[in-house]
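Write out the 3D structure for:
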Amino acid sequence: MLVRERKRSERSKRPFILLSLTVKGPLDPESSGARRIPLETLAAVTRGTDILGWVKWPTTVGVIFLEIGDAAPARAIATLRARVHRELSRRLDAEAMANWSLEFRVYPESIGGDSESGPGPADPIFHPDLRREERARRLSDWIKRALDIFASVTLLLGLAPLLLVVAAVVRLTSPGPVLFRQLRLGKMGTPFKMLKFRTMYVNADENPHQEFITRFIKQSGRTEAPSTNRLFKLTNDPRITPVGQILRKTSIDELPQLWNVLIGEMSLVGPRPPLPYELRHYASWHRRRILEAKPGITGLWQVTGRSRTTFDEMVRLDLKYAKTRSIWMDLRILLRTPGAVVGGKGAC
């Protein structure tokens, strides 16, 4: 029911609230004693459109409140909390109530409880389908991880001369570190430092890129926005060094990410990991691109459209990969990646 209502919320853009009531010891709906009181309490505060059921049997029961009106989720939670406590206090003394705990969650998860701030960190309780899919893909994911380790070690050793030459050129042509460590979000929103060869001047201002990404994401869903010739990158960026232009054009600046692959933060193939400030402008369905697969150096949208696509189209390709991925698909994407780079369709 949570999965169904989550998908409905993604389409309707209407939030819902999940209330979880946990008790020390098992609940018993068949009894007539204290073990039945939490169920009676929640039944008293639910409406005909709400869904009452087990969150974790037999200790946690919950309610999905589907229609909260136009009130802010935080205000709706305060109202619900007061109603539940009022019903509990009618049935129990303070000592008995200390054995029970209430939790309220809102989907889509919002930063600071403000739905206008964009989605916050992913809460696994809203994604039980991901756990089932992970169990079903356990063998495939193990093989994928083994291939990632083998390929990253092989490429790091084989490309060592090129990596050393590039590192020397970066260091000699502009002051600053050789590598650029950028905070990105991995699977389930886990932050990590993604490595690249530095292609910008030191202390370059992030505001131009942040403003561009914000505009690009927001315009993607508009019907009047063009569906072709959109670039998921800045062009003629004065912050990029002359050597950086070449590294970006050939995607050589991405090669240090083989280390991220080796230590398990990334995969060779997967969705590109977003920047934290991108997530603030995601619709709830956009966020699934970082929930359903580990991020990768290359992916389906890179070899299909590279940077020339709308943001919504990019997300749909990432979700298509997450649902249909296999070892054979990964191999096909890897084989198509050099052609996409040589074709000059733009690096990301």
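Residues 184 and 190 are 8 Å apart (CA to CA).
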